[in-house]
Amino acid sequence: xxxxxxxxxxxxxxxxxxxxxxxxxxxxxxxxxxxxxxxxxxxxxxxxxxxxxxxxxxxxxxxxxxxxxxxxxxxxxxxxxxxxxxxxxxxxxxxxxxxxxxxxxxxxxxxxxxxxxxxxxxxxxxxxxxxxxxxxxxxxxxxxxxxxxxxxxxxxxxxxxxxxxxxxxxxxxxxxxxxxxxxxxxxxxxxxxxxxxxxxxxxxxxxxxxxxxxxxxxxxxxxxxxxxxxxxxxxxxxxxxxxxxxxxxxxxxxxxxxxxxxxxxxxxxxxxxxxxxxxxxxxxxxxxxxxxxxxxxxxxxxxxxxxxxxxxxxxxxxxxxxxxxxxxxxxxxxxxxxxxxxxxxxxxxxxxxxxxxxxxxxxxxxxxxxxxxxxxxxxxxxxxxxxxxxxxxxxxxxxxxxxxxxxxxxxxxxxxxxxxxxxxxxxxxxxxxxxxxxxxxxxxxxxxxxxxxxxxxxxxxxxxxxxxxxxxxxxxxxxxxxxxxxxxxxxxxxxxxxxxxx
Length: 502
Description:
By secondary structure, the protein is mostly helical. It has 22 helices and two strands. It has one domain (about 50-500): Growth Hormone, Chain: A, CATH 1.20.1250.20.
């Protein structure tokens, strides 16, 4: 009996060893298995969460946010520098204003949760977001000598379209997080992978598009990602809300606001939110100062549009690598441990800009282009590793019934931190007299930024040291419930064109 048991126990080991030997002797089979692994992962998510959810994430995160934002970032920077002729500090402030719609994401969340249009809660908002983006991009691309104020308004409108679509898809993500808490990391990895791959494609093409068609021409091309948001709204299948009392909208807004406030007062909720704000606010963005130095400094590298785009594409590769690291090695580690190392390396990696600005890389025999690509890839990889646990943690802080609204609230807190970082960075550039032609004090701004990035490490006690696969909120907040008969959970999914036309 014991001999049979030993043979049974050792047989799988021999089998695994044989399989491993076959893979070593057959590289083609090993390569195919490696390629099949992400396909099996997507198949698992599609079976657990429905294929339509996976498709929706790819469209919104991959095409609209990843590819679209990848194109628009480079074109917007060149548009501000070459078309509007603004200073680096001004550009830093204006870029922050463009992201203002992301700060008011709770408003979009409340609208989608409590104000259905024609009986639907998600579909009309996707369509509205798409049309808003199409119109704003057409204005920017077709209008000659557009005033800075109107140009800024159009850019804000385009950003609002992306933000509204983001709120709608985030509601689906948080809803699935509550029903499948063990898949929270996988869902955020899917979002991150879609965004990173899309950004890689967008940044890779952005420099060539700006060179061939100019910044305004790229804005015209961005009509396509916005149009796909309209397609999402057309394909979306959701339950119809009947007999909705529009006269009670104010009451519903108040009830939803009270529910958010009650949740936000929970100790396990406000402490992580405070840390996330501090982490972003103390990041001190000086991106525009570095961009002007890359392109306009007399003693700088004088990068062309194609090179700038390729540098940003290297950042997208680093971001994608960060997602893969988190998915395969870090997603089961406590939030606090990951954030400690991510914050520490974020401060250290910021000094790579110092090496570039002081031209130390040339003394070491490293060309500007090569070093700038390494700098961008490393910083984006670390930033993504820090961002992933924030997303997973945020999705676990959302109570049932107001998932989309509360997740939007947490994301708005993050974006307030990013806005604070952008504006404070613009102030530092202004105080240090970093202009279109003066970059003597840019190295001081880099040192200040790197030191400020280390401060959030002292506030890590605000982050819960819990298993990331378990729920954080009390059980009573996670029970399925209705808020004013509208905030009810539903299985939102993408229907086929045939079903959509019925």
